[in-house]
Amino acid sequence: MKQRQKQAKPVLDAMFAWANLQRDKTAPKSAFGKALTFLVNQWPYLTNYLKDGRLELSNNRAERSIKPFVMGRKNWLFANAQAGAQSSAVI
What's the pTM value of the predicted model, to 2 decimals? Predict the structure, then answer.
């Protein structure tokens, strides 16, 4: 956690300052303006990982774990018969 505070916090602080500066210069309805607004609004959640060393910056592991179910859901959508749908669900 101390390494995150030492190394990542200054970078994040600079990014937050840059985002606020750019937000003042950008039209709020533009795609970039919406992205900046989203970043500033989500900032407290983004910086939570600085407070707890157990938190990961990326959610890649969680997304990889649910990928088979998401892919299956798309495939099961097109099961034409009940028996085929049951077979697909079993697999």
Answer: 0.62
